[in-house]
Design a protein that fits this description.
Distance between the termini: 53 Å
CATH topology of the largest domain: FAD/NAD(P)-binding domain
Number of domains: 3
Strand content: 15-25%
Largest sheet: 8 strands, mixed
Order of helices and strands: EHEEHEEEEHEEEEEEEEHEEEHHHHHHHH
Helix content: 25-40%
Number of strands: 18
CATH class of the largest domain: Alpha Beta
Shape: globular
CATH superfamily of the largest domain: FAD/NAD(P)-binding domain
């Protein structure tokens, strides 16, 4: 049986950053991945990455074609497409990636630091002994099983969370993500018949009839190509995203004469982070921990950040002794204070958008009941400050939409409450259950007031 200090399950952005960080700190690290090495990096997503994430992680800009297009911000279109909010801020400036090349670039960094890669290897189960995760059982492409022992396992397996789902209840980590917190997505890379006018912005289209609880995206790529897709909330009888795509999006004049380059469907967990992401001998990262922006669905940056934090915390824990829940707990604190509190407050804003009908959104955006500054502050995780004068102006403009305006007021207040609660995220596991009970109350209240 092979032994490692750490085993990372999944060679996505989180897994590669975790492996790189662990290996460069001198830990023997094994990275297992179901895909063959040459396909690592391929994934169905929007392919957008904020430039600030590279700076935060101390990563240089790759120069081998990984960064395809520089983006200057996002544009949000009202359902009738008569109002456009342009959000141009450093947090929304970045790149459209060649996802495959970018994944290969991250993988090389991990392997160059000494990570052992086991590609074409499927995770089967966790090895658990005396309440500790002690390794994994996997299957190679030839069908043979392999058992790997480790001091800690990192689940970076994406939305499926294959290791997380195997955890016993006593680990106190949520193993199931509810459908109401998941978007079903369909995406294509298309070659257009002509160059698009927009080369600077990621365009997002709101329309509850086309994408209930979600949105359509059209992101520019070089040489008259686009990344185009849509997501719908998997709540109750949700429509098939591919059907919606062809019935609505492909009828746009932009796509006349266009051709498919690649296509595919996937799932995006658009909710707050898992309330706890660590247990004895295990850390959950990336999409497996629901580390995706609840509004625009971007998960590459947060996944990379979580992988880096996981590597740092694990190496510190093993240097001092063993990787139990207590010694790994600071991973929760690092993520919640840097990105998690913002993500949780945006989960409240997501509820507000889900229940806003197209008429409300058209009126609210055109009459500035909901402003560009509101969306920017929400996207940054900043608090809204609706003073008396500003509130009076909105009430005057929104006399026909008082219910919408009242929902916005409730949303602002609840976002503030949730964010404040995350500032008190427990420093130790012993304080966690009490903190989580209060969090569940906050979210249940938000659902009752915003969704019902």
């Amino acid at each position: 049986m092979e032994k490692f200090d750490a085993i990372v399950v999944g060679a996505g952005t989180a897994g590669c950053l975790a492996s790189k960080t662990l290996a460069e700190r001198g830990l023997s690290t094994c990275l297992i991945e179901n895909k063959p090495k040459e396909l690592i990096g391929t994934k169905i997503c929007g392919d957008a990455l904020g430039e600030h994430h590279l700076k935060t992680l101390g990563l240089e800009k790759p120069k081998g074609g990984e960064l395809e297009t520089r983006i200057e911000g996002i544009r949000i279109f009202s359902p009738d497409e008569k109002t456009i909010f342009t959000i141009a801020h450093e947090d929304f400036i970045g790149y459209l990636l060649n996802r495959h090349l970018f994944g290969q670039w991250l993988l090389k960094k991990a392997v160059d630091k000494g990570t052992t890669l086991l590609d074409s290897t499927k995770f089967l189960d966790l090895k658990i002994k005396d309440g500790f995760v002690t390794g994994v059982i996997a299957k190679k492409s030839n069908g043979s099983k392999v058992e790997l022992k480790s001091k800690v396992v990192v689940d970076s397996s994406g939305f499926l969370g294959v290791a997380r789902r195997k955890l016993p209840e006593e680990m106190n980590i949520d193993t199931v993500i509810e459908n109401r917190d998941v978007e079903a997505c369909y995406r294509e890379i298309r070659q257009l018949s002509h160059e698009t006018e927009n080369k600077k912005y990621c365009d997002i289209y709101l329309n509850q009839k086309v994408t209930p609880g979600g949105y359509t995206w059209i992101f520019p790529k070089p040489n008259a190509k686009v990344n185009v897709g849509l997501g719908v909330c998997m709540n109750k009888n949700f429509p098939n995203p591919k059907t919606q795509f062809y019935e609505h999006i492909m009828k746009r004049p932009l796509f006349e004469g266009s051709k498919i380059i690649t296509s595919g469907a996937w799932f995006d967990p658009t909710r707050r982070p898992l309330d706890n992401m660590v247990g004895n001998g295990i850390i959950i990262t990336g999409d497996a921990a629901s580390l995706v922006n609840p509004i625009h669905g971007g998960g590459i940056g947060p996944s990379m950040l979580s992988g880096f934090y996981a590597g740092k915390v694990i190496s510190d824990a093993l240097e001092k002794g063993k990787a139990n829940q207590e010694s790994l707990w600071s991973y929760n604190n690092l993520y919640m204070q840097s990105y998690g509190k913002k993500q949780a407050s945006l989960d409240i804003f997501r509820m507000f958008l889900i229940k806003s009908n197209d008429d409300d959104l058209n009126y609210g955006m055109s009459c500035k009941l909901l402003t560009e500054d509101d969306v920017l502050k929400a996207g940054l995780g900043d608090e809204f400050h609706l003073n008396i004068t500003e509130t009076a102006r909105r009430v005057f403009r929104g006399i026909k939409r008082m219910r919408f305006l009242n929902k916005l007021r409730i949303t602002v207040n609840m976002m503030r409450q949730v964010k404040a609660h995350y500032y008190s995220y427990p420093k130790t596991p012993e304080e966690y259950n009490e903190w989580r009970l209060e969090l569940v109350k906050l979210f249940n209240n938000a659902r009752a007031r915003l969704l019902e």
